[in-house]
Design goal:
Layout (H helix, E strand, L loop, with lengths): L1 H20 L10 H49 L10 E3 L6 H18 L2 E7 L8 H12 L8 E7 L4 E6 L1 H7 L1 H17 L3 H16 L22 H36 L1
Parallel strand pairs: 1-2, 2-3
Antiparallel strand pairs: 3-4
Helix pairs in contact: 2-8, 3-7, 6-7
Length: 275
């Protein structure tokens, strides 16, 4: 046993010397085989770096797109996901622009209207629309989500969009017939834009509700506001204008996605060509 231990010690020393004399990984590349290994390691490092850059660019593109439309879209989807309003509530102030007194007056007047005539009007405020930019189309979707087709016959929605200073008035067939085109055009084309441009949102809602309830109750309808120059200005978008704006938005999104994909690939091919 002592002889075996004595013979094993020189062998261990020899192996330790060989390990100490071997070049450290990544320190130097000597010999053809070692040079190939080093090249492979460098190539893997470059590919990893490119993958990281591509991932960073992709994440940046996603964040950019989200910052452009994430907030507005979330607000619109939240509104469309809202359940049918309670029987005693006649407003949905998503833009947070209505005072406590205005909300109380709205509930009182519209409750009396529904009890007397059967017509029900909901007031909705929203800061901005981006996914469905047409106020009439958005209001009709909201009405369809809240009520069945037959149930919506005598229901209506008054929409006020604070950022674009415009609005909409939609409803079922019986509701729109009772309101009439003249009053609808006056409220949407003049009353809402004039008051919202001055940021008088409470007056916008209160005066619009007052005129609509008077019409539905068969009473004399108060006169609406008039611009100083006596000109009528259309603030809501036509279908053609809405389709055009959607096309521009789609082009911007497609361009950002192309940049996020093509640029990293060009960089990758540039590194490969150099090698």
């Amino acid at each position: 046993d002592k002889q075996l231990l004595a013979q094993g010690k020189p062998m261990q020393r020899s192996m330790m010397q060989q390990r100490m004399q071997a070049p450290a990984a990544g320190s130097r590349c000597v010999g053809s085989r070692t040079a190939l290994v080093c090249r492979a390691q460098k190539g893997q490092q470059q590919q990893t770096s490119l993958a990281q850059r591509m991932g960073a660019l992709g994440a940046a593109a996603v964040l950019t797109l989200s910052s452009l439309s994430g907030t507005a879209m979330a607000s619109e989807f939240d509104l469309l996901a809202e359940p049918k309003p309670a029987a005693t509530s006649y407003y949905l102030d998503d833009a947070s622009v209505l005072s406590v007194s205005t909300k109380g007056d709205i509930n009182k007047k519209l409750k009396e209207l529904e009890d007397k005539t059967g017509f029900r009007l909901e007031v909705v405020t929203v800061r901005k629309l981006e996914y469905e930019t047409d106020g009439f189309a958005f209001s009709e979707k909201l009405l369809g989500n809240w009520y069945e087709k037959t149930e919506a016959d005598n229901k209506g929605i008054l929409l006020v969009i604070t950022a674009s200073k415009e609005g909409a008035l939609v409803g079922g067939p019986s509701f729109l017939t009772a309101v009439g085109d003249e009053l609808l055009d006056s409220i949407v084309g003049d009353q809402i834009p004039i008051y919202t441009e001055a940021e008088k949102y409470n007056q916008t809602v209160e005066s619009s509700v007052e005129r609509i309830t008077a019409k539905l109750n068969g009473e004399v309808v108060p006169d609406g506001p008039v611009r100083p120059d006596n000109t009528r200005r259309r603030t809501y978008k036509t279908k053609e204008e809405t389709d055009k704006s959607k096309g521009v938005t789609g082009t911007v999104v497609a361009t950002l996605l192309v940049i996020a994909v093509v640029v990293p690939m060009l960089q990758y091919y540039g590194y490969v060509a150099k090698d």
